[in-house]
Amino acid sequence: MSSPAGAGSASDSGAGTDSGAGTDSGAGTDSGASLGYVRRLTTSGTFSLDGQDFELENNVWIVGSCGADNDIGSGWTGADGERAEVIIVDAPHSASAIVEAVGDMRVVAIVATHGHNDHINAAVELREAVAAPVFLHPADLPLWREVYGTSAQPDGELEDGMVLSAGGISLTVLHTPGHTPGGCCLYDAQGGVLFSGDTLFKGGPGATGRSWSDFPTIIESIRRRLLVLPAETRVLTGHGESTRIGDEAENLDEWIERGH
Question: What's the whole-model pTM score?
Fold first, then answer.
C-alpha cells in the first residue's frame, strides 16, 4: 500500500500524534538551499480516510516578504517598520503552533491545498486566531464537511489562475486534481517556487488509492500543469522533502508503469 500522503513523503515515517512542531527558514533539495521569504513549520497528527488512521508529519509553509532584503526569516518586520504580510499554506493539526510561528505578522490568507483532514483540521481555529480568510477549492467541500460538517465554511473559493499576494509575493493557483478533486498547487513564477500540496512529491505523485482520488487524473495534472514549469523550479511539498521539477520530470514514465 502506498503511503497516505504520496510517494516520497514522510507520512509513514513514525511521526507522533502530538502537536509538536519545528521550524526552519526556507527549504530546498539540500541542507544548504534556502529561500528567504519562505518558512517551513512541521506539525504532527492523524490523517483519517476510509475508516483508516495514519500518523504523519505535515509541512506548513509561511510565505511572504518583509522588506528590501526579501527575508522574513530575520526580524519578520519590514524595513519601514510595517508588519510583515504572509500567506499560510495549509493548516494541519496545531493552530497554536502555527500562530506561534507567525508571531505578529499579518496573515493575508490561509490556503488549503486540498480538503484532507490533515491539511484543514486546524483551519477554523487558526482563522479565528489570526483573523484571516480560509480558501479551498469548491470541489473539495465534501472533504471539508467530513471534518467540520456544516458548522463552519471556507471563506473563499480557489479558482484556477487566481492570484493571491502578500508582501510583494504573488502565488498563482494551479488546479491539479487527482489526489483529491479540488487539489491545488501555488506557483511563484518570479521566485521559481511551487507549493505542491499532495499533488507532487520527491519520488512521484500523491497517493490515489483511496476515496476521492484517481491516478490517471493526477498524472494528467502533473504532466500538463507542473512538468511544463522550468526544470529548476523548487517544489515545496505537503509532506517530507522538497525537490525540483527537473528531478521529477525524468521519472514520469516510471510512475505510469508502476501505477502510483
Answer: 0.86
